[in-house]
Amino acid sequence: MTRPLLNTRLAGLGNSIFGEMSARALATKSINLGQGFPDVDGPPEIARAAADAVLAGHGNQYPPAIGIPELRAAVAGHQRRFYDLECDPDTEVLITAGATEAIAAALLALLEPGDEVIAFEPYYDSYVANIAMAGATRVPLTLRAPDFRPDLAELESLITSKTRLLLLNSPHNPTGMVLTRAETEQIARIVIDRDLLVITDEAYEHLTFGRQHIPFATIPGMRGRLVSVGSAGKTFSFTGWKVGWATGTPELVGAVRTTKQFLTFVSSGPFQYAIAQALDLPDSYFATLAADLKDRRDMFARGLREIGFEVYEPDGTYFITTDIAPLGEKDGIEFCLSLPDRAGVVAIPSVVFYEDNPDLGRTMVRFAFCKRAEVLREALDRLSVLAG
Ligand code: GLN
By Cβ atoms counted within 10 A, which residue in 163, 259, 369, 377 is the most buried? Predict the structure, then answer.
């Protein structure tokens, strides 16, 4: 057999960097600042609600294909409370196996082979894989240090007759860039003028520091062009529950539903009940989440700077991108592979996100700071062996 086993569209993708680095952290007993997940679970009453749902027999059998009514109503309530957006819980909300599945299902639903998709580079890893699975071509709108803002004139120049959609992520993983209102409006204008679709990955919508998240759905004219994706894992610190959602017009959500139901069919039955409750938590929950994270960002960024990293302070997400060149380091992959032995810390080499322009990410490294303050302090202490 000369034919490769793996579908050639996926050639070279290999294993998820996040899973690989978490395995390395476990094997080397390192502090894991690689894969982005908090080291403290979300609210205990929400964990209790999930346990109660299992014991009460809620969601232990297949939930409805589009998600349980309680959760769809709660998602609609969340969109109303935070963004003044109306969506019909019966036709405009779809519950998915995390934001990742919502994005995959939306891309598979909306793309034909040969279509072009414009996305911010550095790319979250699943985007590259999902665009390839759909047989489409990714076109990078590359974000550059130090502030990683998109060049919107460049965006216009990238649009061709083959461009079908923009896959946008703000707050942006890995850079922490958060689109401004002006940028959001300008992108929306381009999308409308050029008759495109948009998928927005808003997984980190509640994790912003001093810059408000502006959903594309709030911009007039976007309705009918937009699938918005949200994540309970990031907002409520239950990443293992894999509860996410897509919202949009009935036609768009219907298209995403068609692919979603042949990927996982349904998922996370009892957890859906718990997340319905979580979405009703008071405003103070959401404010405290962001404020606590901001304190940790400030502390961790300061510590990294003192050690000698160049730090690109994020306005959102729980990731910090750094440059290791000032430490005399030349290669982020070598650095991250040796870091467990040198310092007992795991981080992600950002070059893996720069699929099309790897030179830009060569000396960049991403750290997750969604860990307890004492863990971050210990990590800084360990990393101080790198100081010149
Ligand atoms: N979103 C998380 C990150 O960027 C990881 C999710 C995953 O492992 N697939 O680290």
Answer: 369
This prediction's pTM: 0.96
Preceding peptide of 174 cis, ω within 30°? yes
Cα(16) to centroid(ligand 1), Å: 9
Any idea what the Cα angle at residue 260 is, between residues 258 and 264, rounded to 5°? 135
* Identity of the residue numbered 183: E
The answer to whether the CB of 249 falls within 8 A of the CB of 92 is yes
Q: Cα-Cα-Cα-Cα dihedral of 324, 326, 331, 332, to 10°? A: 0
pLDDT at 2: 85
Which residues of the chain register pLDDT less than 50?
Answer: none
> The tokens of 196 are what?
């495109």
Distance, CA of 140 to CA of 117 (rounded, Å): 8
Residue 337 is encoded by which pair of tokens? 């592979």
Ligand 1 atom at minimal distance to the Cα of residue 35: 10
What pLDDT sits at residue 1? 73
For 269, the token pair is: 């039955």
Question: Which two three-digit tokens encode residue 88?
Answer: 């019909």
- Let me know how many helices (H) and strands (E) the chain has, helices first: 14, 13
Whether 35 is in the pocket of ligand 1, judged by its Cβ within 6 Å, is yes
With a 6 Å cutoff on the Cβ, whether 22 touches ligand 1 is: no
Cα-to-centroid distance, 60 and ligand 1 (Å): 26
- pLDDT tens sequence across 110-135: 999 999 999 999 999 999 999 999 99
Any ligand 1 atom below 6 A from CB of 83: no
Q: Does the C-beta of 82 come closer than 6 Å to ligand 1?
A: no
Cis peptide before 122 (omega within 30 of 0): yes
What span, in angstroms and rounded, lies between the C-alpha atoms of 109 and 260?
9
36 pocket-lining for ligand 1 (C-beta < 6 Å): yes
Element (H, E) at 311: strand 310-312
Query: What residue type is 169 in one-letter code?
Result: N
Give the pLDDT confidence score for residue 86 in this predicted structure.
97
Contacts of 60 (CB under 8 A, 6+ apart): 54, 269, 270
Å from CA of 194 to ligand 1 middle: 32
Q: Which atom of ligand 1 is nearest to the CA of 19?
A: 8
Q: Before 146, cis peptide (omega within 30)?
A: yes
